[in-house]
Amino acid sequence: MYSLIVTAKLNDIDPQAWLADVLARIAGHPVQKLDELMPWNWKARPQKMAA
């Protein structure tokens, strides 16, 4: 866990936001594209605007 948190911090990413997003979407994410979820490639999904 520590290495995941430090890696996120080294990539200027909020570790809590990154880990929460990755855990929420990893089950439905294609295996061939898992590299997209790594901290150095990760892009946060835009927050849905409340109506």
UniProtKB/TrEMBL annotation:
Top-rank taxon, per record: Bacteria
Family annotation (InterPro entries): IS66_C
Name of one Pfam family that matches: DDE_Tnp_IS66_C
Domain Transposase IS66 C-terminal: 3-40
Protein's name in the database: Transposase IS66 C-terminal domain-containing protein
Gene source species: Brevundimonas mediterranea
